[in-house]
Amino acid sequence: MLSLMDEAMEFDFAGALPGMDVGSSGLDFDFDLDFDFDTTTSGGTDFDTPELCGAGSGVTGTATSPANASSMNAGSSSGVVVDEEERRRRLKRRISNRESARRSRARRQQRAEELERAVEELRSQRRALAATAGAAAARALAVRVDNARLAAEAAALRRRLAEAQRQAVLLVALARARRTAMAVAAAPGMMTS
């Protein structure tokens, strides 16, 4: 199985010019870059497509450009080393960017899930508060009905009390009048005896 670096180099070499001999330089590059991430779960990125690794997109290293092909065939080893360093740097940057994008997608997904949980919790709280408010409104209505009933009873009792007080005043006045009448009637008889 090829490493990610070998695959990327294979794609870059595959995008070279047809007449360019990329395997005859005698240089053996063995890059052992150990990136700790799973390429199969990178959020849908397919590392096997040439577009992502630069082949056919015009974004390949300068070792595959026509101008440098002649210098590479001419044996310019310093240009090849610089080109390989540039390609390695670009590959590391691409890998780093992919990993950063994967982490960003994971953070965005986690944040979306947190927001969904918060929304559900708020909806649950709203339902609970609506039920509490409904129960409180029912209790308030019951209290208002009781208050109205008690106010009506109090008004009826006040009327009965006022009527009782009037009757008591009349009874007291009547009792005084009787005593006075009895006292007057008893007084002439006392005088005659």
Automatic annotation (TrEMBL):
PROSITE patterns reported for this sequence: BZIP, BZIP_BASIC
One cellular component (GO) term of this entry: nucleus
Keywords: DNA-binding, Nucleus, Transcription, Transcription regulation
Entry-linked InterPro entries: bZIP, bZIP_sf
Domain (BZIP) ranges: 87-129
Entry-linked SUPFAM superfamilies: Leucine zipper domain
Region feature (Disordered): 42-88
Superkingdom per UniProt: Eukaryota
GO biological process: one example: positive regulation of DNA-templated transcription
Positions with biased composition (Low complexity): 60-81
GO molecular function: DNA-binding transcription factor activity; transcription cis-regulatory region binding
Protein name (database record): BZIP domain-containing protein
Originating organism: Digitaria exilis
Phylogenetic classification of the source organism: Eukaryota, Viridiplantae, Streptophyta, Embryophyta, Tracheophyta
